[in-house]
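ok so I'm stuck.
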Amino acid sequence: MSDNAHDSHTGPIKTPAQLLWTSFFSFVVPVFIIIGLVYFVTSAQKPTTGTLSQADAVSAEIATAKRIARVGTVELQANAGPRVPANGEQVYKAQCAACHDSGAVGAPKFGDAAAWSARIGLGYDALLNSALKGKNNMNAQGGGTYSDYEIGRAVVYMANAAGGKLDEPAAPEGAAAPVVAAAPAAPVMAAAPAPAAAAPAAATTVASAADGEALYKKACMACHVAGVAGAPKFGDKAAWAPRLALGVDGLTASVIKGKNAMPPKGGAATASDAEIKAAVAYMVAAAK
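replied:
not stuck anymore, here's the structure
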């Protein structure tokens, strides 16, 4: 009777070995289970290849730049009548040459028949669609603000320079006709006019800070936002520090001549030297 009473007041652990195994399964095993779960969750978030290739890194930077880019900009311009559409060469030099002259980030080089042959085989509509919507590392419309018609003319210009025979796209209704210079009038015999006072010297062209920002957004940001092809990122003080020692004038000279993967004038062939200098000053100010 006394033995039964004693057993009713004791627990299931009766020996030191039972106590040891109970402690092990109660504390040690859950710790290992938690460590295993943490390792499984964190390893699932890592890239399968271990390290990103250079092309993947550039794509990731461009994708990030697109996400943080401004939704839109507002530009106020004087109403000077219908704007004459730019031709293919003008659009190419102003917008496309920055990457296609050097083949940056996989862009087919201008005039390279081998690089363009497969693309030309897709036809004009497919090439235009890729240019308008963007493809791989190229932003929509190459990052520019030209009309669909002007982008189409640039597509034809580049394709035909590489051996294509694409027809010029039809101009949209209401588009302004190209400006044609008037023929000089026939000379008229008249008495020689009295000597006029010497005309004042032409004022030196100076571009404003707003001009520099506008040119940056139009031509420079395509590479400098994401650091494409080694371009120093906009506002990156560490990347710009060794370049600032050259000063605005020295940097402007490099841009005008072109350097490394950057074509002359950064691809903005129609920009004046003053506008280039203003764009350089705008970028320099952001990196100080």
